[in-house]
Design brief:
This protein is an alpha/beta fold. About 35% of the residues lie in helices and about 30% in strands. It binds NADP nicotinamide-adenine-dinucleotide phosphate.
Length: about 425
């Protein structure tokens, strides 16, 4: 075993996380080199904006705008992709692996869409591809699933994987804010991007859930296999009613296994207000995992931000450096042998909260109950809320027992056609 004096890093993207990673490399060289066994040295930085070198005191000479220059540099052992987005990040990662560079990435979009191809290229070229920061920012998840929990048959994952939406939901719940006001406040504080679509529509959480589900259940689950629904339909009154009924509302990423099928879905959920996930507020993430041996485990921490995320990125770099120094490589496993398939959303079964505006007169409930009954949906409780005196429209809230998603969708469509139903204002799934 020959320990290398230094290991070269090629960084693609000196933005929020790239900057955080560079600061960690520059700021604590002794700790990192002690752990890695070699000095970790930035050899090349690929950026669109060459002026970025000044802010971190990185030598200007190592900056380039040309990917070729980075990937062909013989001094670069590990390519760290922190540009984000699908393209050209995917092509650059694939090219780096093909040229036998080890790769570290935080890119959930690329990993959830191109997992199998990238892992195969990494195997073919006997190099590592690590992506700990792609899910849960600084919270260790990928390594625990691949190493510490491997003795388990995982049966379920319930996770808050998006800090932006959790922050918005927390403010809506605590302050009675409407969605648009809470979103604006999140944007003012830098917790939501100018275009927040991927966060608020559940797309970001779906990318992350696809990665976790693939590892946990040994089946390739792509992001397009994950059903996702966002939080923009929720209103302040949903949080009031949820509280009255003993629930909190969270955007959950849920994966469950039963037999050979898997559920993988992201949507707002009523969860018991005394559950641990209900108490996860603000930008924090939490991941509840159920395994046959370990029982229930919860991971909790900062799911984003330059410091927390660079903890995961730099740890991945150190693991690769340690392997280089040992003369080994942790060749990625392709965890796709289980033969399990993702269940269509129509087939899932859960409880439901329904809120609707109805005519305030006798017999309305009987008509709605009849339709729900026709679809084998049984009601567990009905609450009549305020009636608007000017329109004579009353708001009612219905909680159901377990029912099939397809039946609920069909029944709601039919109920909406009743003359006495003015509007189905919302429905939310309940996990209890
Ligand atoms: N932010 C977080 O808290 C967080 C947490 C976990 C994981 N991640 C992941 O980490 C990655 C980076 O996120 P970030 O927040 O650091 O993004 P960011 O601040 O936008 O940084 C990306 C940087 O890469 C540069 N870049 C983009 N495309 C490039 C190209 N083709 N060539 C050269 N440079 C290019 C960008 O330059 P311009 O600005 O000039 O376009 C920018 O400086 C993403 O995959 C993200 O999902 C982020």
């Amino acid at each position: 075993m020959v320990t290398r004096k230094s290991i070269g890093i090629g960084l693609m993207g000196l933005g929020v996380i790239g900057g955080g990673m560079a600061k960690a490399l520059i700021g604590k060289p002794d700790t990192l080199s002690r752990e890695a066994g070699s000095k970790l040295v930035l050899k090349k930085v690929l950026e669109k904006d060459l002026a970025k070198h000044g802010s971190l005191g990185i030598e200007r000479s190592i900056f380039t705008t040309q990917f070729e220059e980075l990937v062909t540099n013989p001094e670069v052992d590990i390519v760290v992709e922190l540009m984000g987005g699908e393209y050209p990040a995917f092509e650059y990662i694939r090219e780096a692996l093909t040229r036998s560079k080890h790769v570290v990435t935080a890119n959930k979009e690329v990993m959830s869409k191109h997992w199998s191809e990238l892992l195969t290229v990494a195997r073919d070229h006997q190099v590592s591809l690590r992506y700990e920061a792609s899910v849960g920012g600084g919270i260790p998840l990928i390594a625990p699933f691949q190493e510490d929990l491997v003795a388990n048959d995982i049966s379920a994952i319930y996770a808050i994987l998006n800090g932006t939406t959790n922050y918005i939901l927390t403010r809506m719940a605590r302050e009675g804010l409407d969605f648009s006001v809470a979103l604006k406040k999140a944007q003012e504080l830098g917790y939501a991007e100018a275009d927040p679509t991927k966060d608020i529509e559940g797309v970001d959480a779906a990318y992350k859930l696809a990665i976790l589900t693939t590892i946990a259940f040994g089946t390739e689950v792509r992001s397009e296999d994950v059903y996702h629904e966002g939080i923009s339909r929720l209103q302040a009154c949903d949080f009031r009613y949820a509280r009255e009924l003993g629930y909190a509302i969270k955007l959950l990423a849920i994966a469950k296994r039963s037999g050979n099928s898997i559920e993988a879905r992201v949507h707002p959920v009523f969860i018991p207000e005394d559950s641990l996930l209900a108490k996860v507020d603000g930008v924090y993430n939490a991941i509840h995992v159920e395994g046959d041996l370990v029982g229930k485990v919860i991971f909790y921490g900062e799911g984003a931000g330059p410091r927390a995320t660079s903890s995961a990125v730099v740890s991945d770099i150190i693991k690769i450096a340690q392997n280089i120094n040992r003369g080994t490589t942790d060749i990625p496993r392709l965890p796709f042998a289980s033969g399990r398939t993702v269940k269509p959303m129509d087939e899932i079964e859960t409880r439901y909260y329904m809120r609707m505006g109805v005519a305030d007169k006798a017999g309305v409930l009987a008509q709605i109950s009849k339709i729900l009954g026709d679809y084998a949906i049984s009601i567990s409780s009905v609450i009549q809320k305020e009636t608007d005196p000017s329109t004579q429209i009353a708001e009612i809230v219905i909680m159901t027992h377990r029912a099939k998603e397809k039946a609920v969708q069909q029944a709601l469509k039919k109920a909406e056609r009743l003359a006495v139903v003015k509007e189905i204002t919302n429905f939310v799934r309940v996990e209890a």
